[in-house]
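Hi support team,

I submitted a single chain yesterday and got back a structure, but I'm not sure I'm reading the token output correctly. Could someone confirm the output below corresponds to the sequence I sent? I've pasted both exactly as they appear in my results page.

Thanks,
R.
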Amino acid sequence: MGVSGSGKTTVGKLFAEQSGWAFIEGDDYHPPENVRKMANGTPLTDADRQPWLENLHKILLEHAQAHQPLVMACSALKKHYRQMLAEGLPDIHFVFLKGNYDLIEERLAARPEHYMKAGMLRSQYETLQEPQKALVIDITQNPREICRQIWHYLGAA
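Hi R., thanks for writing in. Yes, this is the structure output for that exact sequence:
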């Protein structure tokens, strides 16, 4: 979890590859109207995010019921969003990829093909409620080191 550009997809894919777990990119499940809003520079509201989060929760539940471990990249910026995602899932773990604004703005500027533009970053930081119950990782480290820390955390959790 984390703001756009924090490395969720990069780290999530690498961790899934290393673990043999399934990987899901939460952004792929945004309804078209949400993508249009973000592409036009309009921040999403809680009401916009509600069906998206419900769908992601359903996916998490399905994988848990099938005993299929899953890595999901999802912004999950507010405590309420994380509670929605985790409902009924006692074995869910959140990893917060944390970085400073300037670094993430630079990363977003370097990926012009993505609908989430650097100009939207301020709204994500304004929305972000840093988690109290999560592994917090500094994103200045390389993705392999971040994955190593996640492995260590999961072994202890």
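A quick pointer for reading it: The CA atoms of residues 23 and 71 lie 5 Å apart. Let us know if anything else looks off.

Best,
Support desk
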